Amino acid sequence: MATRFAFWRKIDEAALAEKHAQPGLLSDFILGSQDGLVNVLGVILGVAVASRDITIILAGGLAATFAESISMGAVAYTSTLARRDHYLAEVEREKEEMRTLPDLERQEVRDILERWDFHGAELDEMLEKIVSKPKAWLELMMAHELYLAPVDPTQARRSAVLVGIAAILGSLIPLIPFIVIGRDILLGTAVSLVVSTLALFAIGWWKARTTIGRPGRSGTQMAIIGIASALAGFGIAYLVSGGRGL
């Protein structure tokens, strides 16, 4: 009974690891919102310092918003499909190795079980149980030899939609101050930077709260990295405009 309990406990842990390895709503939302916010902030800061025209700033920001959302959604879609295709290719390769190199594959299962603290007769018993079930054998190898998780066929569409929407929402954050404030470009830039920094901090803080880590540290890292990236666009535009400033 103890042996069976230990074995199924390991299987449950493996299932949890598989679930956690799959991209979820949180990672897709963070990917889209952070990328959209940072890229559009960089664009509008650059346009602001180069043109100082509110119409051009808003036009550039909105164009970047929708181009970014479509691009990010497409990247999420194609990258998810690529991960699924890679997983399916590795499944076929592993099946072939199980047929043509069974002794080597059995040894790899033995190595995994030894990592889980199975030894002696207990290890031999578990080994025979697993290799007697080709489906269990294959899934064990995929998860714990190759460290690959299966990808839901519908996940690509879900990720594309969520990343695209999140990119739009993130992109609007640095734009709203310019819309509200209007032609005071200097004030709009300052408020946009402050609001964007707070938003990035909130995203990082929320990520740590819902996963693991220190919320304050995660929020600060997210804000610093995001604002530093956005300011690169500002710096380039400033140099190109001859250092005239706002």
Sum this structure up briefly:
With about 250 residues, the chain is mainly alpha-helical.
Features:
246 residues; mainly alpha; disordered N terminus
In words, what does this structure look like?
The chain has one domain. The chain is built from 9 helices and no strands. With 246 residues, the protein is an all-alpha fold. The N terminus is likely disordered. 85% of the residues lie in helices and 0% in strands. α3 runs antiparallel to α7, α4 packs across α5 and α8 packs antiparallel against α9.
SSE layout and pairings?
Elements: H1 2-21, H2 25-51, H3 54-100, H4 102-115, H5 120-131, H6 134-144, H7 155-181, H8 185-210, H9 215-240
Helix pairs in contact: 2-3, 2-7, 2-8, 2-9, 3-4, 3-7, 4-5, 4-6, 7-8, 8-9
Domain module count: 1
Integer-rounded radius of gyration: 25 Å
Terminal CA distance: 75 Å
Mean pLDDT: 83
> Which class do the helix and strand fractions yield?
mainly alpha
The level of helicity is over 70%
Number of DSSP strand runs: 0
Strand content is under 5%
- Please write the string of helix (H) and strand (E) elements: HHHHHHHHH
Number of helices: 9
Largest sheet: none
Low-confidence stretches: 1-23
- The global form is elongated
